[in-house]
Design a protein that fits this description.
The protein is an alpha/beta fold. It has 3 domains: about 5-105, Conserved hypothetical protein from pyrococcus furiosus pfu- 392566-001, ParB domain (Alpha-Beta Complex); about 175-225, no CATH class; about 235-270. Helices cover about 55% and strands about 15% of the residues. The protein has 12 helices and 7 strands. The chain has helices spanning about 5-30, 50-65, 85-95, 110-125, 130-145, 150-155, 160-170, 175-180, 190-195, 200-210, 220-225, 255-270, and strands at about 30-35, 40, 70-75, 80-85, 100-105, 235-240, 245-250. The chain has a 5-stranded mixed beta sheet. It has a two-stranded antiparallel ribbon with strand order 6-7. Helix 6 (about 150-155) crosses helix 7 (about 160-170). The termini are far apart.
Length: about 270
């Protein structure tokens, strides 16, 4: 038989389990948290927010309330925003001190992977990242150890691996072309992918500018900048073994003596 002390310990354990279960339900259902306790997500690809967009969201929240709670990652007792950065900005704009949130407990490694995937997916769904910005974001995720391969990225964001490879190829663009894209120049991904294959930096810039000015199309870029046609060698001396004839192109030499010297050297090699 169990002693009264043993039975007491059992009841205490049951009480603790109930508290944990209640806390877990609260976290999953959502609870209000102090906004000033929230920390920015260090693994978010993009940290710039348009003032106009935040104002519009603030007006919507003021009229209709918060439709969806934000998601917070709890790592070592610190609260990091995983999803809902814009909603937090809007709440701050309205002067609110608390916001409804769903809390998720993570280890640091889990937080890196989950938060980076979530913020990337949010941005992709809002379509506010250019292909180059995505490439830079993907590269950052790999550097941070969140993803290891292109396949990991594809699975994390719900895109194909081929798409990820095309986007990542834009990192081969020279700095000037990259800056033009970041400044807002709209060029299709398939065009940028081809320009990125051009080895010469000056030729990349030239092809980019010509396409932007509509002086050239994708097909022409491939033909002019990526053509691997080998030009026929203009050999000054040749020998037709079948006919036994040696031919010499005198126009390739500046003097008769130079031609004779070259012809003599050619005969010695036969």
């Amino acid at each position: 038989m169990k002693s009264s002390m043993d039975r007491g310990n059992v009841f205490l354990q049951i009480g603790e389990d109930r508290k944990k279960a209640t806390l877990l339900r609260q976290r999953m259902a959502g609870q209000e948290v102090e906004i000033n306790e929230l920390l920015e997500n260090p693994y978010q690809p993009r940290m710039e927010y348009k003032e106009e967009s935040i104002n519009e969201l603030a007006d919507s929240i003021k009229k209709s309330g918060l439709i969806q709670p934000i998601i917070i990652g709890v790592v070592e007792s610190k609260y990091y925003i995983i999803a809902g950065h814009r909603r937090v900005k809007a709440y701050q704009k309205l002067g609110y001190e608390k916001i409804q949130a769903l809390l998720r407990d993570y280890t640091l490694d889990e937080f890196k992977r989950v938060s980076s995937s979530q913020t990337l997916i949010e941005n992709i769904q809002r379509e506010n990242l250019s292909h180059l910005e995505l490439a830079l974001a993907f590269n950052r995720l790999i550097d941070n150890g969140v993803f290891r391969t292109y396949e990991d990225i594809a699975n994390g964001i719900g895109k194909s691996e081929i798409y990820v490879k095309k986007v990542m190829s834009l990192l081969k663009l020279c700095k000037k072309v990259q800056q033009e894209i970041l400044n807002g120049q709209k060029i299709p991904l398939e065009v940028l992918e081809v320009i990125a294959k051009i080895k010469s930096e000056s030729k990349q810039i030239e092809a980019f500018e010509r396409y932007f000015k509509k002086e050239i199309d994708l097909k022409a870029i491939k033909a002019e900048y990526l053509s691997n046609k080998i030009k026929p060698k203009n050999t000054p001396i040749s020998f037709n073994e079948k006919k036994g004839i040696v031919s010499i192109n005198l126009s390739q030499y500046t003097s008769k003596d130079e031609a004779i010297k070259a012809f003599t050297a050619f005969l010695k090699q036969m």
